[in-house]
């Protein structure tokens, strides 16, 4: 469908005009030349798969590893792409120290604030939107998902 000649041809990003045509990206695939060629041609927006999730960025409390997330941001900037930050609070891929904060409302709240402020501050001016709370509602029941956040804060963490 996409190619040269007719009005429906070209790259997806060319047809987007003022809209975003995005894809999930992974830093591990940035060494694959064909992968990065297609991403750079077709998409004008990217969402990191795992590189900005809490467990990837801050596996130990207060110690951040920006390497893979920064690689994706640099790639997106080089290719004039918008970046959607994904995700600040999610019930999965949490660092192990979070489990020890179960029921400790004030302490968990402070850790969340510190994490969000540090991550958003690090990427200030580079991210056009953030998924702040991801998948807070259970897929099957439609109710608040059971997580350390819902057990500690009920729905107020949203």
TrEMBL record:
The keyword Signal applies. One of its GO terms (molecular function) is endo-1,4-beta-xylanase activity. PROSITE patterns: GH10_2. GO terms for biological process: xylan catabolic process. Residues 6-158 form the GH10 domain. It catalyses: Endohydrolysis of (1->4)-beta-D-xylosidic linkages in xylans. Keywords: Carbohydrate metabolism, Glycosidase, Hydrolase, Polysaccharide degradation, Signal, Xylan degradation. Its EC number is 3.2.1.8. InterPro entries: GH, GH10, GH10_dom. It comes from the Eukaryota. Belongs to the glycosyl hydrolase 10 (cellulase F) family. This is endo-1,4-beta-xylanase. It comes from Oppiella nova. The lineage of its organism: Eukaryota, Metazoa, Ecdysozoa, Arthropoda, Chelicerata.
């Amino acid at each position: 469908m996409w190619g040269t000649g007719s009005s429906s041809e070209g790259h997806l990003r060319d047809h987007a005009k003022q809209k975003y045509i995005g894809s999930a990206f992974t830093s591990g695939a940035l060494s694959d030349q064909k992968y990065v060629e297609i991403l750079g041609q077709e998409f004008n927006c990217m969402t990191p798969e795992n590189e900005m999730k809490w467990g990837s960025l801050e596996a130990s409390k207060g110690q951040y590893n920006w390497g893979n997330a920064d690689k994706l941001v640099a790639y997106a900037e080089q290719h004039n792409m918008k970046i959607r930050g994904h995700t600040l609070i999610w019930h999965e891929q949490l660092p192990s120290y979070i489990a020890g904060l179960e029921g400790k409302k004030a302490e968990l709240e402070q850790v969340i604030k510190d994490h969000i402020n540090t991550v958003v501050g690090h990427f200030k001016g580079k991210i056009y939107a953030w998924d702040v709370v991801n998948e807070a509602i259970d897929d099957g029941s439609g109710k608040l998902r059971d997580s350390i956040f819902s057990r500690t804060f009920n729905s107020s963490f949203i």
